[in-house]
Design goal:
Elements (H helix, E strand, L loop, with lengths): L14 E6 L12 E7 L10 H7 E3 L9 E11 L5 E6 L4 E3 L2 E3 L1 H10 L16 E4 L2 E4 L1
Antiparallel strand pairs: 1-2, 2-4, 3-4, 4-5, 6-7, 8-9
Amino acid sequence: MTGTLPPIGQAISGLQIHILDEEMRPVAENTAGQIYIGGAGVARGYLNRPELTAERFVANPFGANPSERLYRTGDLARYLPNGEIAYVGAADEQIKILGHRIEPNEIVAVLDRHAGVKSSQVVAREDGCRAKTSRGVRDT
């Protein structure tokens, strides 16, 4: 990610924000880690997607109740000296195109299942290519 983004603030009432390393330990100030969200506003999982639920909704090592979960967002951030959170980027292969979050690996998996495809690769380009849509042409 290029440039400096403004801070995204702090957790709202009733939610917990944890920025954790790979071992789910809190990171030091100004150190990037993955954002985990906990509290009353967090869902229990994905509907009919048990594998994705197990991957993203993990046991809360800081919770008093063993059934408490944290949502692993897939985003990286760091704490600023004033306690606010600064977004750093995506921790996974997810990309954002025209405001939509895209998982290139999911596209590859679908393409590779096709009998006529030996192997595929998805690449996001930032070269100003133009995509035709039913409403005309737009920059992508």
